[in-house]
Amino acid sequence: MTTSTIDTTPGSIGPGMIRFYDAILNPLEAGIYTLEAKQEINDLPGENPAPYIATQDLVVDGPRFAINPAEIHMVYPPANSEGLYDNNMPNMVFTSFTLPWARSIDPATTTRMATLAVDNDQNPIPWIGLLTIYPDDLKNKVGEPQVMKASEVVKPADSKILPPALGDLLGADDTLVTVTDIDLAYFQAIAPSLDELPFLAHGREVNTGGKILLGMEDDGCFSLVFGNRLPMAAAENTMFLVSYEGHQEHLHGSTISGGYTKIRLVLLGSWQFRAKAAQGSFIQLMANLCEPGRGGVKLLQMPLSAATGQISADAEKALQMGYVPLQNNMRQGEESTSWYRGPLIASPTKRDLAYGPYHYSDHAIHYDPETGIFNHAYSTAWQTGRLLALSDASFSSAMFTWRNNYLYGILASSRQLDNSKLSAIAGSMNNNKSSENAREAVVMLMSGGFSKVKWPQITSRSAAVLQDGLPGVFTSEEKTAMAIEDTDPLLMLVNKIKNV
What we know:
By secondary structure, this protein is α+β, with helices and mostly antiparallel strands.
């Protein structure tokens, strides 16, 4: 989709969503235009005056020999970084969403291609592009950047250098321009063709709702320019942002005559990064998993060594399933060992619908009475999901709004109770009171009427098991030992039943 009008107001697209455009065009490209006005006067008796015609030349200005660094939102791979970039296409993002199409690649025309009006499949051609330069090529094929006047760009002193056909410089003859002279055959080998250029730039409309943690707080539109060449692995790569204006007939696949050996390009920007050694293709990486000792779920298991010593069968089974024993600091200050495993471990599990729903993380802790060990896999997943949800600005805002609306609804409902209902709730306490005092009676009932109720007391599991209500289960010596050693009564009960 190509557009020259775009709605940049917040909310035009959903939170966290991106809308792609083949191109975002200015109403007028940069260039020279002629405005013509014509007036005819007819039906005058005995006269036939010539029409009045007036013309006015005007210039639509735009970036040409330099780009404001403030318009560069980001580059990828990041400048001066090192990483596995050998399978990533370098790109540059601009805050000026019309920049790649701000001017025509052919300065001889100031209008867009005529086919664009009738052929929606024909995309506008960007006037800028990225070249990926490898280390040896940078030394042997690419000349050092140099600064010169714009008039020298189009008229090189060396007749072997092919200049851009920029046409009228519009009074910018003395403007200083950064250029680089590149071996012509090398340039034609790595440069895109004229037909490929439209696919190396596009526009994006972004709603940054929920992305505040990424430093993206403003909705807006961006334009992107991609390179057409993958970086070299285990090497320092150099990216050139160049102007293709005036070089529309010099790109890949073009035939050039005149005995030129080099081509002069306007250099708009550059950066470098280092790509680490290639890790292999996806097929190679997957095939390596089938090699002995290279694959299987053991890749995601805690490694065992001779220093680990002999472990129990239950512990070995847990480790094979991807569990890891971790120290568990309990709320009472005690220390214990608990199991944990992540949700992406490559080990089959059986879903138990008896689990959940959980209302808080501790509710999701599983306990094995046979081993006396807690399993924190579900509780950790619950807490992680809760934190991820609350870190999403749009979700947390919607949740708190729903919660407040629910509480306000309850409060509003309570205020709408009529006096007869309040009197009924208050009961015999307000038989001799007027209806206007019914609300006060209800408040007194709720605050003081239940104060003398003997509510059932909740006792701990230790107290419930160690009390005398279960004679014969534990001896007095066992009870004393459990109290001194702080042993779990339920675990002792299970072991005792097994040994009976």
